[in-house]
Hints:
The structure holds 2 protein chains of 2 kinds. By secondary structure, chain A is α/β, with parallel strands linked by helices. Chain A has 2 domains: 47-65 and 97-245, 3-Layer(aba) Sandwich (Rossmann fold); 248-305, no CATH class. Chain A is built from 11 helices and 12 strands. Chain A has a 6-stranded mixed beta sheet with strand order 5-6-7-3-8-9, sandwiched between helices. In chain A, strands 2-1-4 form a 3-stranded antiparallel beta sheet, with helices on one face. Chain A has a 3-stranded antiparallel beta sheet with strand order 11-10-12, covered by helices on one side. In chain A, strand 8 (223-228) and strand 9 form a beta hairpin. The longest helix of chain A has 18 residues, at 186-203. By secondary structure, chain B is mainly alpha-helical. Chain B has helices at 2-17, 19-47, 50-69, 73-82, 85-90, 96-127, 137-160, 169-181, 194-200, 204-214, 221-251. In chain B, 40% of the residues are buried. At the A-B interface, helix 2, helix 3, strand 5 and helix 4 of A face helix 1 and helix 5 of B.
Amino acid sequence: MDDIIQVSRLTKKFNIRQNSSFIKSLFSPEGKTLTAVNNISFKIKKGERVAFIGPNGAGKSTTIKMLSSISYPTSGTALVNGLVPWENRKKLAYDIGTVFGQRSQLWYNLPVQDSFFLMGKIYNVDEIPFKRRLSKLVRLFEIRDLLVRPVRALSLGQRMRCEIVASLLHRPQVLFLDEPTIGLDVTAKEIIRGLIRRQALEEDTTLLLTSHDTDDMEKVCDRVIIINRGKLIFDDSITALRDSFLRKKYIEITTDSGQKIKMVVNTAITPAKKAVDELIRQYHVTDLTIENPPMEEIIKEIYARE
Amino acid sequence: MNKYAALYSVSLKQAWAAKASLYGRLFFLFILIFIYNHLWEVIGAENNSLELNRTYIWYLLFAEMIILSSPRADRSLFNDIRDGTMAYYVGKPISFFLMRCVEALGSMTASFVLMGVLGSLATLLLTGEPPFLWRHFPIIFLMCYLSSCFNVLLTCAVGLCGLWLASIRTLSMLIERLVFTLGGGIFPLSIYPDWFIDIAKYTPFYSFYYLTIKLVYDFSWENLAVAVTLNSGWLCLIALFTIFAYGRLTKRINIYGG
């Protein structure tokens, strides 16, 4: 398979002004350089679903912005579908789709279908292929009831489904998803993850998904790249990460007396099911959650092993 | 162009749907016409010049149609630059600046047409026949519409100055005052001293507002030709500035954080 994304020694530095007074900054500007992305390299094959994860401020979004032609790197190169993103913005736009969890590309006051219509026009999709495509995506993402509703009247989960549909209308080969599940509740997150994976598998779309939620990568992707403080610290399959670093599970139960009990289980020694069974046997459990270790802990462990 | 036409039509549809905003502007226009009509009736009766009142109110109607119909595109564009919204459109096959301009044009058109029809009717009932011939009405209406388009472009250009300025409020206020004074937005420039008119002539406000609206009471093919020529020239200049500024802007984009 061909590499659809090639990143080589990509670096992005920001100059931050520090002068407190305007006059002083005119004559002797002071500032410091912040390296958001530090010399990272990786390749992604066509159809791969890659999670690009790291804690807040790791440089995930900055990398995705460079790859999706939104900003320029300080040094290094990248090719997305054979094009340098920041030099071929308009051309590349037809090959990629972008979803930014904290930004909307839909028209806030318009009904969802009008936003889709405009997106189709922006990407020069002809009328008949557009209708066919929309109909397929509407079915895939189960949004038929939302089409006539104004974007402002949608819940965050519903809006996110529509955002993803909007970014897929022009059949992009690569879909960049920047924190697509941010702010969503557990159920909505599950639905979004399932839909993203289903679409990618069905249409062989290459995914690059950023998140600081390890569940996003486990449910959607096959490969994971971990970035911390701008540096790439892990690049392997989800299975490899799971075997090495996701063995711990955090189990929390609430008993009928309202007491909360937390425990950490190493699944290499005790299977999660056995631990849960034991807890249920010992307590009257009214609520139970099982979580992966937080991102920060995985990173700490990666460094510790190095 | 297809995409911009689609944007224009959707914006127009949206503006018609936002009735509160449309009627609010219309109400303000009626209030203005009513107050100034009353004021000039009193002055006109004292000076025996009611004819002047009729001419002035029709002038005021077209001036206010241009000014009031324009949405606050400068503020929204400035906010889009500052909060990074614009950056997210850089990677889309559309010019973000043109997109916002076309959206503002759609919104302006709805207000302009409504004000033109209902405002003319109200002025007709208040003051009587207009100072121009009815057969010239479509030309005057179209010229004023083009001036209104220029007004939208100007406000968008002011918004684009957010690239260099920390706040555009002062600049917006300055442009508004210049439209009222140098453009004759409240009173025709003919009431001002000659030196003031000489200064105004070197600005786009003179042709886009005063010369255009002047066709209401002084219509001639010669005046029309002068207005069209000057407006075209200024339009090219403003368009060149915006193309330059937008080009600079898209090259300077930096988005901090996620």
